[in-house]
Amino acid sequence: MAFISTVYSKITGVFFDAGIVSWDVLLTMMNLVQRKRRVGHVTPEGHPGYGGHWPEFRPPREGDSRCSCPALNAMANHGIIPRSGRGITFTELNRQIRSTYNFGSSFCSFVPHFAAKMLQKSYSKDVFDLEDLDLHNGIEHDASLTRADTHFQKDQSVKHLPYIEELLASATGKDSEGNAILTLKDLQKVQGKRRAEARAKNPEFSLSLFHKIFGSSNSSTLLTIFGGRVEDLRSILFDERLPEGWESRIRQPHGLTITNFNTTVLRCEFGTREKDFEVSKVGNEEPHPNV
Ligand code: HEM
Questions:
Q1: What is the rounded distance in angstroms from the CA atom of residue 291 to the CA atom of residue 214?
Q2: How does pLDDT run across 233-250, given as a tens digit for each residue?
Q3: Whether domain 2-276 has CATH 3.30.9.10
Q4: Measured in angstroms, how far is the CA atom of residue 28 from the centroid of ligand 1?
Q5: Where do the structural domains in the chain lie, given as residue ranges?
Q6: Spatial separation of the C-alpha atoms in residues 43 and 216, rounded to whole Å
Q7: Is the CB of 190 under 6 A from ligand 1?
Q8: How far is the CA of 72 from the centre of ligand 1 (A)?
């Protein structure tokens, strides 16, 4: 029986992945021929955040569940998903990341399906708490840009403020109004340094190619969905709060597809050069100022 169900889940997995890829390519092509959403109209009407008006921000209370993902925590802090961060359905997560961040529906289906599988839960029937996503070396991994490694900090909802400060301070770009912009090069540098340091200082360090790509995917959202705008990133990363008036920088009608996203992800990953940063193992206690 177990054998039959393993074969069945492998076969359905292959069809699911092939289905997602074809669907994603179709969305990518439709984005090429259809008009972009107008600035100020990216968040759909009827959805929280329409017109830049996000529901009230409330920081988490004692007992609420939060995780290593600033974007999901922000949705809970605004009540777009349950404020408690508990009892969330995978289908709801799919729907809400689609309208909040304008990721393509292929991505919005793929990641929650992946998360359900990782947690050995049913995508359509089960619920999860945000902290469940912090399963080490599931999606969560070492050398993140906003969190100390699990070896140093078990609770991955805790932000590591010096890393976030360093990330934002590394921004070298400017937009037409002179606002600071984080560029792909900046991100590659910070990521390379972070990996070199984590490898040198964390006695339990691990980072497979798979997790490197996951890391670059998370990092790439800073450039795509958030357009690298340091002022917005300050609010998202430090406070896990969507700035008043904010909308996704992706204006394509079918959102950011996996195909388009991957061009940034792969450039980010393959331009990350850990070897450029030599780090001594001496003095290896991880710093403290977490929140
Ligand atoms: C179903 C959807 C999602 C799941 C399950 C998820 C899960 C995660 C997890 C587990 C991490 C921690 C990874 C690490 O160890 O560094 C993470 C980090 C992150 N995620 Fe998400 N996420 C989702 C959607 C999103 C979306 C829609 C965005 C952007 C709009 C986003 C942006 C980020 C960022 C910026 C980080 C921080 C990366 C770092 O510290 O290096 N995520 N996410």
A1: 24
A2: 999 999 999 999 999 999
A3: no
A4: 22
A5: 2-276
A6: 25
A7: no
A8: 7
